[in-house]
Amino acid sequence: MNPLSVKYHLQDEQRYCGAACAQMVLDSNPINRGILAQLDLYTELQDRTVEPGLWYAPPDGLAYIMNNN
User: Fold this and answer.
1) Which has fewest Cβ within 10 Å: 4, 30, 56, 69?
2) pLDDT grade, residue 1 (50/70/90)?
3) pTM for this model (two decimals)
4) Residue 41 to residues 1, 3, 13, Cα–Cα distance (Å)
5) Are 17 and 57 in contact (CB under 8 A)?
6) Whole-angstrom distance, CA of residue 39 vs CA of residue 1
């Protein structure tokens, strides 16, 4: 298995750490989804969790956006 070629992208806001990580991986080769907006990723991962108030990037929400995108 070849490692992903992930380019660094700064997070746009302090609370977008998980969204920035997802953004970098989803833009990497061979996934090539392009640069998705961190605000959209953050909103989607917050909407897909059972514990939204406890995390900036809840694990279940992060897993959802990685699998969905």
Assistant:
1) 30
2) low
3) 0.87
4) 27, 23, 12
5) yes
6) 31
